[in-house]
Amino acid sequence: MEETILLNQTSLVAYFQLRGLSVNQKVQMAVFSMFLIFYVLTLIGNILIVITIIYDRRLHTPMYFFLSNLSFIDVCHSTVTVPKMLIDTWSEKKLISFGACVTQMFFLHLFACTEIFLLTVMAYDRYVAICKPLQYLTVMNWKVCMLLAMALWTGGTIHSLALTSLTLKLPYCGPDEIDNFFCDVPQVIKLACTDTRIIEILIISNSGLISVVCFVVLVVSYAVILVSLRQQISEGRRKALSTCAAHLTVVTLFLGHCIFIYSRPSTSLPEDKVVSVFFTAVTPLLNPIIYTLRNEDMKSALNKLMGRKNRKEE
């Protein structure tokens, strides 16, 4: 009986209205063009990375296995929010149903949290490869890689289910306007018709803590790697430094957003939308650029793939 009343309270708001990035029509058209270009390039770049890694047997290593997972997650992560945002650009009222909003929040946190765990695993992979090269194939064997992949996806699912369940149980009876271009937990719980301080503390202790702890672990890992690189020969050091620099760039951009949004109470700041743009559209695009333009093995594999494709067409 109590659950039925709670469900009825929750369902009082059938739709939420997304405020979007701007109410100015010219700005909206510029935003549409920018997001469309970013999204198309994100799909092409990340899918090409996955295909290249599958095609080239030289890239069948733990590092590239995790990189293909990262590219897959980036495609999914961007797809959760960007297509809806592109459609809303042409809509006078940017509405999203309660069910669609909950679904968007679930998958947004699933892919975001899974990516955080994946970046941490990738740092560990680089640590073993650089600091313990003789033990690398033993420590990072395929069984371990598969178990790590299963663990990070399971962890992301549990995290997302927990946050979405907490948000879903709150009563929503108005207002119904979300100050962003997609549904996220901090913005949605602000619309609940009840005191949400306990939920906000749980969000900070969950999402915020995961982001901060993983960021600290990553920084410490790369600091240890950089110290270890001082003892290596110049060529090997240059290649390892390039890889670590790429990873650190991704980590800073991605985790910077998570720490900024989820490590404070649910209050709206002018910077939130700008940070959200980087989180949903820019970072998934930067990953293929960083990992292909800075990586000689990937560039060589891409050239080989393109060369074979051109020969087949001829």
Structure at a glance:
With 314 residues, the chain is mostly helical. The protein has a single domain, classed as Rhodopsin 7-helix transmembrane proteins (Rhopdopsin 7-helix transmembrane proteins, Up-down Bundle). The protein contains 11 helices and 3 strands.
What class would the helix/strand composition place it in? mainly alpha
Q: Quick one: biggest sheet?
A: 3 strands, mixed
Q: Output mean pLDDT.
A: 81
Superfamily at the CATH H level? Rhodopsin 7-helix transmembrane proteins
Strand content: under 5%
Proportion of residues in helical segments = over 70%
The number of distinct structural domains comes to 1
Question: Kindly, what is the distance between the CA atoms of the first and last residues, rounded to a whole number of angstroms?
Answer: 70 Å
CATH structural class: Mainly Alpha
What is CATH's topology name? Rhopdopsin 7-helix transmembrane proteins
Count of DSSP H/I helices: 11
Question: How would you write the strand order of the largest sheet?
Answer: 2-1-3
Question: Which regions are unreliable across 5 or more consecutive residues at pLDDT < 50?
Answer: 1-10
- Cα gyration radius (Å): 21 Å
- What string gives the helices and strands in order? HEHHEHHHEHHHHH
Structure summary, number of beta strands: 3
Keywords: Cell membrane, G-protein coupled receptor, Membrane, Olfaction, Receptor, Sensory transduction, Transducer, Transmembrane, Transmembrane helix
Family: Belongs to the G-protein coupled receptor 1 family.
Organism: Otolemur garnettii
GO molecular function: G protein-coupled receptor activity; olfactory receptor activity
